[in-house]
Design brief:
- With about 500 residues, this protein is an alpha+beta fold.
- It has one domain: Up-down Bundle (Outer membrane efflux proteins (OEP)), CATH 1.20.1600.
- The protein contains ten helices and six strands; from the N terminus they run H-H-H-H-E-E-H-H-H-H-E-E-E-E-H-H.
- Helix 5 runs antiparallel to helix 6, helix 8 packs antiparallel against helix 9 and helix 9 packs antiparallel against helix 10.
- Keywords: Lipoprotein, Membrane, Palmitate, Signal, Transmembrane, Transmembrane beta strand.
Length: about 500
Amino acid sequence: MNLRRRLGLFMASSMLLSACTVGPNYQPDRMKVPAGFKEAAEEHTATPEEIERTNKEMTEWWASFNDPMLTSLVEQAIAGNFDLQIAGQHILAERAIRDRSASQWYPQMDANIGGGDVRYSINIDNWPIRPGNPSNRPQASMMTYGAMATWEVDVFGRIRRDVEAHERAVEASIEGRRALLMTLLSELASDYMLLRVTQLQISIATNNIRVAKEGVDLSNKLYLEGVGNTLQTAQAQAELDAQIAAREPLKTRVSQVTHAIAVLLGKMPGELEDQLKVVRPLPVVPAFPATMPSIVMANRPDVRMAERKYALATAQIGVAVANLYPHFVIPLTFNPNASAMYQLFQVNAMSWQFLMMASLPIMHGGKMTAEIRAAQASAEAARLSYRQTVLTAFKEVEDAMAAWHDDIEYAEQLHKAAEDSALASERARKLYGAGLVGFLEVLTTERTTLNAQNMEAMAKLERLRDAVNLYTAIGAGWKGVPLTNSTLPVSLETQNVLARAFKQ
């Protein structure tokens, strides 16, 4: 049987055997989950309009706050945040690693050329006679060129499992970027809400400073009229000083939050200060989602990433199992050599080998079986991690829903308390002006009013953050945001002429 026929039979048998891929095939973990959420609003049949609104909110939830500035900041953050760009480059790196693994399917070939002088030892008995170079002439000139190639035939699927594992790693890195995007948008929105509420608190503090100044003027007037006393004027001045001092930390917080927002957008801390420090109304709290089936948890990137890591770990079991089976390799060497240029292409100068090699592991002290056990344990850990991620996700959604519903009544009660305190403070000042109550009652009611107004402002912040937390918990916001692909200014294809002709 000639060599060509043997090679044909070997290739045919290899292709048939290549259908055999050892190791377990990935099966998604079927975790039993409830159909809905316990803390969700009372179930009702959602109208098509409500479903459409909810689906839109899942894609661009920040638009539901009806704040153009927030929407603009989100767009700038998606385009400019460096952490997000770094995550994108990690995806590109994972894809390149996957392609490197897939290259094992193809023949690996290198060419060589060389020449020079060599000297052989003559201190060895029975040294073979070298044509054209007897033992009394150990030096020789040699020229050579050739090629070396090797090709592994993936009979038992080791390469396929390796590529599969790297493909799952690519998918996990994509979900990791999406999770980072959600965290980025959540942090940006929370900082923006804090900025607007802090500006509201500064407005409240400024108003209380005005009231305190009126109290100083009133106490001085009463003192001059012989009705008041120096204790009351001192108390009024101390209250004014305290109100002025209380406003300063709020200004510091505004500066710090504007710096944080700028960095999230990939800008220097001071770039957005003039733009963000302009006082604007608070964003509008959106309506609670009209429909909330538990299937929305499939949108959470961390859940999707945990599932992809489980698939990756399952593929790695296959890689470890395939190492127990024979490896089939076809090596090829073509390496003519001679002492003169004209001899290099003569038949006598030809030197080559073409083999079909198979290797079977026999004894490695339990190394390979230990690798299989390690891969199995890692896969089981990944499966359990997936389940824990799902449980944590459900907890976060339930917590966000509970906070949403409970904070509604909390905010309403604080609003009523702030109104009642303001009314009491106004009456106390009038009674003090009429000499019917002392200045202590005025101070008490003013401090109660300030505290109630600040608590109401913080309750508004919590209401806004409840909405942000709920959208983040259900995995909204990453859809429709494509992967940004940035490349180095040097094109690798232009660095080597062979790179344009061959897959290197």
